[in-house]
Amino acid sequence: MKPQVVFVLGGPGAGKGTQCAKIVENYNYTHLSAGDLLREERGRKGSEFGQLIDTYIKEGKIVPVEITIGLLRRAMEKTMQMDMEKYRFLIDGFPRNQDNLEGWTTVMKDKADVKFVLFFDCSNEVCIYRCLERGKSSGRTDDNRESLEKRIQTYLQSTRPIIERYEKEGKVRRVDASRSVDQVFADVRSILDKEG
Ligand code: UP5
Ligand code: MG
């Protein structure tokens, strides 16, 4: 079975990870967060990319796609090797820019189907507030005001155009993500129930 992919996009702190966790509880999807995979790789002993990833994340810059796509592809293959029924993936926080999109197209176009993009739309102010709140205990090196300014800039300059591109193809399912977790999830449910 060819992997079926839903890209999950939205600003920093829009609630991508939170909503993906709820989807996994209720639907037959595997959640792969590109950011989580990069943080894991950064912490892996002997990783040749650790230092680079660390710098990029603090600066809110987007890591070269060769690294990210390698991690995503390996995670997808591993999941499907363990259980053939697990061919539905939420790819959270990717593709974030043109380089990501080109890398995906080159490596994965024939290997996976992108069903649609789940877009958590949230104001910059709410995004920043949520990340700063989380930063009090998350230990994330990018949950501080300085990194957040950069993350928001990168999101606006690089990621929004990718969402707009998918929008033109009719592939974006937008959710107002500034509401409560449960209100947001109610919309997510109706989208997933419709899309199958
Ligand atoms: N929260 C969530 N939903 C809420 C709600 N409805 N109401 C109130 N509070 C809500 O949520 C963030 C916080 O808000 C949490 O405290 C949560 O409880 C609360 P979360 O679900 O974690 O939001 P999410 O959108 O996942 O935020 P995250 O910080 O993970 O988003 P980013 O996109 O910034 O981070 P990511 O981990 O994807 O990427 C980090 C960095 O990695 C990037 O900046 C980049 O440098 C690098 N990266 C790449 O280079 N390439 C990639 O492909 C991916 C990442
Ligand atoms: Mg996240």
UniProtKB/TrEMBL annotation:
Keywords: ATP-binding, Cytoplasm, Kinase, Nucleotide-binding, Nucleus, Pyrimidine biosynthesis, Transferase
E.C. code: 2.7.4.14, 2.7.4.6
Signal found in the keyword field: no
Reactions it catalyzes: dTDP + GTP = dTTP + GDP; dGDP + ATP = dGTP + ADP; dADP + GTP = dATP + GDP; GTP + UDP = UTP + GDP
Gene Ontology biological process terms from the UniProt entry: 'de novo' pyrimidine nucleobase biosynthetic process; pyrimidine nucleotide biosynthetic process
Chain spans, region NMPbind: 33-63
Binding positions for a ribonucleoside 5'-phosphate per the UniProt entry: R39, K61, I62, V63, G93, F94, P95, R96, R140, R151
Transferase keyword on record: yes
Pfam families documented for this protein: ADK
Region (LID): 133-143
Example GO molecular function: nucleoside diphosphate kinase activity
Needed co-factor(s): Mg(2+)
Positions annotated to bind ATP: G13, A14, G15, K16, G17, T18, R134, R179
Location(s) in or outside the cell: Cytoplasm; Nucleus
Positions annotated to bind CMP: N100
Functional description taken from the UniProt entry: Catalyzes the phosphorylation of pyrimidine nucleoside monophosphates at the expense of ATP. Plays an important role in de novo pyrimidine nucleotide biosynthesis. Has preference for UMP and CMP as phosphate acceptors. Also displays broad nucleoside diphosphate kinase activity.
Family: Belongs to the adenylate kinase family. UMP-CMP kinase subfamily.
This protein's domain notes: Consists of three domains, a large central CORE domain and two small peripheral domains, NMPbind and LID, which undergo movements during catalysis. The LID domain closes over the site of phosphoryl transfer upon ATP binding. Assembling and dissambling the active center during each catalytic cycle provides an effective means to prevent ATP hydrolysis.
Entry-linked NCBIfam families: UMP_CMP_kin_fam
Oligomeric form and interacting partners: Monomer.
Record's protein name: UMP-CMP kinase
Source species of the chain: Scleropages formosus (Asian bonytongue)
